[in-house]
Amino acid sequence: MAKMNLLQAINSALDLAMAKHDNVYSFGEDTGGFGGVFRATSGLTEKYGKHRNFNTPLVEQGIIGFANGLASQGSYAIAEIQFGDYIFPAFDQIVNETAKFRYRSGNEFNVGGLTIRTPYGGGIAGGHYHSQSPEAYFAHTPGIKIVTPRNPYEAKGLLLSAIFDKNPVLFMEPKRLYRASTGEVPEEEYTIPLGKAEVVKEGNDITVLGWGAQMEMTEKAVEQAEKDGVSCEVIDLRTISPWDVETVTQSVLKTGRLVISQEAPITGGFASEIAATVQDKCFLYLESPIARVSGIDVPYPLCHEKEYMADHLKIYEAIKRSMNY
Amino acid sequence: MAKDKKHNTEIVTKPKWFDKDSVTIPMLQILKEDGSFHKDADMPEYDKELIVKIHDTMQFIRILDERMIAAQRQGRISFYLASRGEEAESVASAAALDAGDMIMGQYREQGALAYRGFTVEQFMNQLFSNEKDLGKGRQMPVHYGCADLNFMTISSPLGTQIPQATGYAFGQKMDKTGKCTICYFGEGAASEGDFHAALNMASVYKVPVIFFCRNNGYAISTPAEGEQYAGDGIAPRGIGYGMKTIRIDGNDVFAVLKATQEARRLAVEEDEPVLIEAMSYRMSGHSTSDDPTGYRTRDEESEWQAKDPLDRLQKWMMNEGWLDKDHVEEHHAEVKAKVLAALKESEKVPVPHIDELINDVYDQPTELLKEQLEELKEHIRKYPDAYSKTSGRMD
Description:
- Chain A: Its EC number is 1.2.4.4.
- The structure holds 2 protein chains of 2 kinds.
- By secondary structure, chain A is of the alpha/beta class.
- Chain A has helices spanning 6-20, 44-48, 60-72, 91-97, 101-104, 135-139, 152-164, 214-227, 245-255, 270-282, 305-308, 312-323; strands spanning 2-5, 24-28, 53-55, 76-80, 114-120, 145-147, 169-174, 182-185, 198-201, 206-210, 232-236, 239-241, 258-265, 291-295.
- Chain A has 2 domains: 2-185, Thiamin diphosphate (ThDP)-binding fold, Pyr/PP domains (Rossmann fold, 3-Layer(aba) Sandwich), CATH 3.40.50; 198-323, Rossmann fold (3-Layer(aba) Sandwich), CATH 3.40.50.920.
- Chain A contains 12 helices and 14 strands.
- In chain A, helix 2 (44-48) links the parallel strand 2 and strand 3 (53-55).
- Chain B has helices at residues 48-73, 87-95, 110-116, 120-127, 161-174, 193-205, 224-228, 235-240, 253-270, 298-305, 309-320, 325-348, 367-382, 388-391; strands at 3-4, 9-10, 102-104, 181-186, 209-215, 218-219, 222-223, 244-249, 274-279.
- Chain B has 2 domains: 24-34 and 45-287 and 299-348, Rossmann fold (3-Layer(aba) Sandwich), CATH 3.40.50.970; 354-391, no CATH class.
- The termini of chain B are far apart.
- The relative contact order of chain B is 0.14.
- In chain B, strands 3-4-5-9-8 form a 5-stranded parallel β-sheet, with helices on both faces. A two-stranded antiparallel sheet of chain B has the order 1-2.
- Classes of the chains: A alpha/beta, B alpha/beta.
- Chains A and B meet through helix 3, helix 11 and helix 12 of A and helix 13 of B.
């Protein structure tokens, strides 16, 4: 075990994956010798050469188009999009190519070796274009998995699973926690299964669900609620698509209450999808309406960032409202 | 010589290959690095008043950049992005335009905005995201915009403004405005798909647009040569799209002025889109979040320091008797005092009222947004200390 921050855990996963197979490649804007603007890929060029870890020209649609081709040829392509906010020029390549490669060819071809890494989320004074959480756009597209870790241990295990999963994966990294989140992480290879949520803490009165950077907010809110005597069950979804319906519904059948928090705006967010499924599966067991705590429906604002965020106080209030319903 | 009738293409019977040496594009330079003119150079139109205004604007921007980098280091603003070494490009090109021409920048063209008359107070209000900011505090520092000065608000995603410039110029042409659009971007952004779409459409529609590429050698850490492109820079791409193209020394005020004056005439009088590739060097880091020591050498930086556009212009002006040391020093002190005073003042101005949060998403806030705002305000009232920037004035 070693103490690592979230970036170091990601770097360690990339390092191990590249050591394991010669046909694992890592690339993106500034990700070569410089190691990326967040340094997630630092040291990889020195270790594996500039043909294994390299800079791309500044063209996101090209990065993912290239990555689709490389993965379809049988290699492992790990493509970095510098910020989730800049993924949209590649939207066509992801939605129409990555996600449909296997299906449209009748499994003649696939891009299962593709992993797209991208930092996402706010709370870093990043304004409109360094703060967004675009998971819902991609969750609407069958054929691609979406994964996000909450801490260094999870980041390494989930990323290694994503890289070697037989399907393309969008791996969203909570950049607010890149250096802020630290913990003990095994130095060797290990994996955490995709599509499986984790019950982080068991409880009986209410289920509180989140993913990625929201887990930090959720845990703070739950701490406060527990002081009021509310027993909370905390779940980290980990994989947004395909999501673990079973773990979530089993929990809600037990507690009868659900609060979901997400960073993105409320309308059309993934929390809405979860709420729809849970009311379908747990209707007669619900003690209160399912609550969504999220951003409001405005572009991510700079000067009102604090007000905008789905912070621990808003989650705490939602827990109270649900308990007092 | 045989010709293919439909395409008017010469027919050859042996393979004839073309490569990057088939077309070599020279660089226009008028003012040499030593501060004297090339003897036979074609000169731009200029007079003392114009050159002094260009100089003072360049000096202003350099001081503003220095002070704001310091302010960022002190934690007073969250982010800054300097244009040191590239002031001639944005300032002298803006000086070649009409005030009614549209400017679409990338994010390193504060010089063009200052030339248009954006005040030091306006710069500060944006940088501090306060309630006087024209952008209402919603974007990161340096994302300026001003409709009165025909300067389109900056957006962070790279290259998105390039096809927009084609569209804007098309409208200018159709409305017979006699105006054009200048669009700035870096050599890195020229890799984006948007760049290619923009140039092709501008050539096809013949619109009055000037594509001004600031080739400053780096896209954050990625060097232009060999990693951003393998060809002869950006200029040959213009020819590929059938566009008038020129390469210039971006650190030479007179070359920038000359090329942009001619480009504007071509754009406005002949509806010819133009590509200008200005060769320069990003003397500062990409932004305050960047540290260039990780990817380039001091030697390389000092090589370019010797080509500094402001030093070069000052040398010439002093020889000409258009500038003396006293003016430089007095102007420096005056600008610095103004910048510091505006900085202190802007820092005190509060952030926009919380009600501004939902304005401008649409022309009118939707009912749903109004509800969301009310819920948010109720929450802030419950926890005023947690949201101290807005809780003090909720009504």
